[in-house]
Amino acid sequence: MRELPIVVNDLLNEYIDLVNEYMPNQLEGLYLHGSLALNAFVEGSSDIDFIAVTQSGLTESELKKAKEIHRILADKYQFPEMDGVYLTQNDLGTLCECFYYNNGIMNYGHFLNPVTWWLLKKNGIVIYGDVPVIEINANDLVSYTYENMNTYWANRIQSYEESIDELTQTADSAIDKEVEWTVLGILRQFYTLREKDIISKQGAGEYSLKHLPEKWHPIIVDANNIRRGEENRHYTSKRDRIEETIKLSKYLISQSAAIKNK
């Protein structure tokens, strides 16, 4: 198994012990995807993206126990946060509704997407149980990414445009967070459409500097610097950072069909 950061290893060992104590014989598999699978985990900011496979669906009593397990771990470990789902073997590779733990809250609904399964199939880390068998192909990944760019991201960018004056009144740190999230997030999608694969945020920024026109490089470099915790900015004005983020995003969305069909 791939070597994990010490804090991740410690947390997961405690998680497994707690699950086996609170819900004996339920845990059949525990798998990691996300930044850990991409070797892009950043201590202090990245989450532990997990998939917990249980022998049967969680009962109401077991759901309460799962919430208690996550509460215990969240109280002990401020970082990293756990972020993942509870499934049965039959659910692997599907887009079913499920219980999912996100931002410290247990919910039920649609949380899975083809990115999850692609990463698990190609780069997933087995912590507990057998290697999962996942059925997914590149067309599923690309189709989902194209739709996501033209729905979620398009709507997000439109909301930025409509509230730009309000956004400029927020703190620099908040602007930086939005710039990093948006620029590197949509560049990951650009990479997926071109390469039919998944890359980390930092990797997407570096890739895009080689494959996008130079006019977009300053805002990409700014986003990468924010990700790395560096202070250097090409755009010192909050409005300029927001406007360039919007322009780059709209450009990529407008080009998405052509990129997808290349």
TrEMBL record:
Tagged with keyword Flavoprotein: no
Keyword line: Transferase
One GO MF term attached to the UniProt entry: transferase activity
InterPro entries: AadA_C (IPR025184), NT_sf (IPR043519)
Residue ranges of every copy of the Adenylyltransferase AadA C-terminal domain listed in the record: 159-247
Protein name: Adenylyltransferase AadA C-terminal domain-containing protein
